[in-house]
Structure formats: C-alpha cells, structure tokens
C-alpha cells in the first residue's frame, strides 16, 4: 500500500497581493499531484487547508477541479479534511462541492452518511462518523477544531473518545501537537498535547504546522509515525529558503540544505509505502530572509549592495534593516537600490532606531502573561469569522474560567441586551448551552 500525504496547500492564496504567487501555489500543488500519480500511489491524503479561505474564488475552484481531476482519471481517491482556513459552519462547503463532483472524499463527523466504494459511515444518534476505506485499510479523520472543543472540562481528550487506534488504519487531523510545534508559531498555541493523541494507528497524517516535522514511532512510543509535511509553498518569513545576515560579516545560510541532508525549510510532501514515509522535496521559488545591520545610512546601503551577488534572480526577498542611525532611515530611500536585482518581489522592514535602546535579554511571553491570558490569546488568535462561528461555545468556555464572577458577567450581558439587539442574541445563546458535534458523538451510546 502506497499513498501520498499532502497538507496546507492554501490554494487561492495571492501572497503579497502578487498574481505570480497565486500561480506558484497552484503549480506546486500540480507538481505534487503529478509526482504522486507517477509514483503509482493507491490514494492521496489532503490534511486540511487545501484552500486558503472557505469561500475560494472561481479561479481557485477551477484550478482545484482541474488538478484533482488528474487523480480521478487514474481512479486514485483523494481523502480530505477541512483545516482552520477552509472550514465553514454552513451546511454546504467547497469540500462538499468537490465531493459531489467525485474529486475528493471528506472524512469526519457529519449530518448525513456517505456510502461509496471509498467511504463508510458509522451512525450514532442522528450523526455519522465517516471514514475512508481502500482495500482493508481504513482512514479516519476529523476537520480542524479549537483546543477548547477537543478537550473536555476535566481535561480528557475527546479525540481519544472518538478514535480508537487499530491495525492498518491512518488518523488524519489538522491540529498543532505541542511536542512538534517547537520553533513554530504554534509553540504556545497548540491544540493537543502529544499524550492527548490516541495511540494504535499505523500513521498519523497531520496538517496545520507549516514546517516539515517527523516523529518516528520508535522515538515517541506511539504505534505509528506522526508526520507534518508542512505547507507546500513558503507562507511566511520563517519558512524562507535562505537566510542572509550582514552584521559585522556576511553570513549565508541555505535553509533547505544541511550539508548533504535536507534542511528544516525544505518544502514538499510525503510518499508513504507500507507505512514507511519518504519526504519528496519540491523546488519552490527562492525566498530570502535578509537582515542588514549598520549604524549609518551609508553602511546599510553599502552592505545591501554587497549582498546582490548572493541573491538569485526571480526570487522573493524580505529585507530587515537594523541598527542605530542618527535621525533614523526611511525605507523609500532603499527601495530603488533593489530595482535592478531582477527580483520577483521584495519589501523592506525598518527596525532602525534613532537612539540606542538597551535590552538586556529577550523577555519571554511566560514572564509577561499568566497561563490563562496566554490560552485566551491563543483562542482569540483565530480569524474573526471563526470566532463568530461558535461564539456561544466560546463564551461558555470563557465564563467557566470566570466562575466566581459568573453571575456578574451574565448580568452584564443582560444589561447590554436591553440596549443592543445583537447582544440579546449572544445572551440567548449562552443560556442555551451549545452542544458541538464532538460532544454529541461522545454522549450518545
Ligand atoms: Mn495552514
């Protein structure tokens, strides 16, 4: 059995508002599908954030349909779960459209069953847990959920309730696992602890963390390898292919290579044969994270000019200027210097100060905020649309943590509701006590 594991395609994204970036994101997905088909995989997994937004443009839908059709023509099923970027609370999502066209098979807890050559459903109450099947192999999955939806009040993992590991089965999730989130933006905003993941699966096909991360089963004590392929394209500066720092000396680092080995920022996906994962690197447009430090405008300009020969044409360059310059600098003076470098895109970030600021050391988030504040920030760090989606459950979650002041809070909401009709709706929802699909699945015997 051989399959491809692809995650975080973010199709439709036009990074830096540049049309060429839209095409880059499409082409890297096309390449990964072409390689998978050429390798003769039995099926393909898309571990969430296939689209960058839940309502993709007609162009992005068209490109998705065209590329997914390559697999359909070869009778290779594509199994998918929704990520935080492309999930929706509407009854019909873009995933439903693709599923209706026979291009993907979605997995998870659903209101209606799916029964096909590649999908089976288990009924509980009025809802269904849909999983994939290929031969005697099973693929389980769940769309993205926030930590407060995944972990019950007494700290128990609902994921462990829903999914029991079994031989010849894969678990597909779009969540950040704390142990693998180190050095990523999710380090302090993880969704699950490693111990909250159910054991017993032969492979964990994860998405959400945009850096490639592997946790081999021999090292974790888990039955199967836990893998994040990372995003297919470079979605932010931390995923740069090259790092250039010019302080006292010019330092160059290729982050996709470490001697003969792959570097931490190599991009691509996995092909997994008999549960042995192999990373397939895909070359993407070079992306430079450049920092230049100097204490005069002339020094900054001279150092910048020296870097030119080390930066490939048609690449992306994000330049940070640092140092202390009397009167500061304005980036408009620096933009023309890169005009003839032949770059596809570049921008400046000005961190030059006009006076010396003394900082002893980096202050950690933990020293500044309490654990509750950090958890709250991580909940609020989602896009506003998601916050509104399950506002009632979120408020419930929030109020529980303010237990002593709970009555006071309710009163406050009620007072507001007399004035604003919008607040009244919120208050009603709080009283109703929301039951999510996860809880509904767990509670029904
Ligand atoms: Mn993503």
From TrEMBL:
Cofactor: how and how many bound: Binds 2 manganese ions per subunit.
In terms of Pfam families, this protein maps to: Metallophos
Q: Does the keyword Manganese apply?
A: yes
Q: What is the lineage of its organism?
A: Archaea, Methanobacteriati, Methanobacteriota, Thermococci, Thermococcales
According to UniProt, the name of this protein is DNA double-strand break repair protein Mre11
| Originating species | Palaeococcus pacificus DY20341
Checking HAMAP family in the record gives: Mre11
Task: Family membership, please give it.
Answer: Belongs to the MRE11/RAD32 family.
Has keyword Manganese?
yes
Function per UniProt: Part of the Rad50/Mre11 complex, which is involved in the early steps of DNA double-strand break (DSB) repair. The complex may facilitate opening of the processed DNA ends to aid in the recruitment of HerA and NurA. Mre11 binds to DSB ends and has both double-stranded 3'-5' exonuclease activity and single-stranded endonuclease activity.
């Amino acid at each position: 059995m051989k399959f491809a594991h692809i995650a975080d395609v973010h199709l439709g994204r036009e990074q830096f508002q540049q049309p060429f970036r839209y095409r880059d994101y499409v082409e890297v997905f096309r390449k990964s599908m072409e390689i998978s088909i050429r390798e003769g995989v039995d099926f393909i997994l898309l571990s969430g954030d296939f689209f960058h937004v839940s309502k993709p443009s007609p162009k992005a839908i068209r490109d998705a349909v065209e590329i997914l059709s390559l697999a359909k023509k070869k009778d290779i099923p594509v199994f998918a779960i929704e990520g935080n970027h492309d999930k929706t609370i509407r009854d019909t999502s873009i995933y439903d459209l693709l599923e209706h066209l026979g291009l993907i098979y979605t997995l998870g807890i659903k209101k209606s069953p799916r029964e096909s050559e590649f999908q089976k459903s288990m009924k509980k109450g009025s809802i269904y847990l849909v999983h994939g099947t290929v031969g005697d192999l099973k693929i389980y999955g769940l769309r993205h959920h926030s930590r407060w939806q995944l972990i019950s009040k007494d700290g128990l993992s609902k994921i462990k309730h829903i999914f029991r590991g079994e031989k010849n089965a894969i678990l597909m999730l779009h969540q950040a696992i704390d142990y693998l989130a180190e050095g990523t933006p999710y380090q302090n905003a993880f969704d699950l602890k490693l111990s909250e993941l159910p054991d017993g699966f032969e492979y964990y096909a994860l998405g959400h963390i945009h850096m490639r991360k592997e946790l081999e089963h021999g090292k974790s004590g888990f039955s199967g390898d836990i893998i994040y392929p990372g995003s297919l394209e470079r979605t932010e500066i931390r995923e740069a292919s090259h790092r250039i720092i010019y302080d006292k000396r010019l330092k160059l680092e290729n982050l996709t290579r470490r001697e003969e080995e792959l570097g931490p920022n190599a991009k691509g996906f996995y092909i997994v044969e008999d549960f042995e994962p192999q990373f397939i690197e895909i070359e993407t447009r070079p992306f430079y994270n450049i920092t230049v430090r100097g204490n005069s405008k002339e020094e900054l300009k001279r150092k910048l000019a020296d870097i030119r020969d080390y930066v490939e044409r048609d690449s992306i360059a994000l330049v940070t200027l640092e140092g202390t310059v009397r009167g500061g600098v304005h980036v408009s003076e620096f933009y023309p210097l890169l005009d003839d470098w032949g770059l596809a895109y570049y921008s400046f970030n000005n961190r030059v100060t006009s006076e010396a600021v003394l900082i002893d050391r980096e202050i950690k988030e933990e020293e500044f905020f309490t654990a509750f504040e950090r958890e709250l920030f991580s909940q609020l760090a989602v896009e506003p649309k998601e916050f509104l989606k399950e506002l009632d459950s979120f408020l419930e979650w929030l109020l529980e943590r303010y237990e002593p002041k709970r009555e006071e809070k309710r009163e406050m909401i009620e007072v507001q509701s007399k004035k604003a009709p919008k607040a009244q709706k919120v208050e009603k929802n709080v009283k109703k006590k929301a039951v999510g699909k996860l809880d509904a699945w767990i509670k029904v015997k």
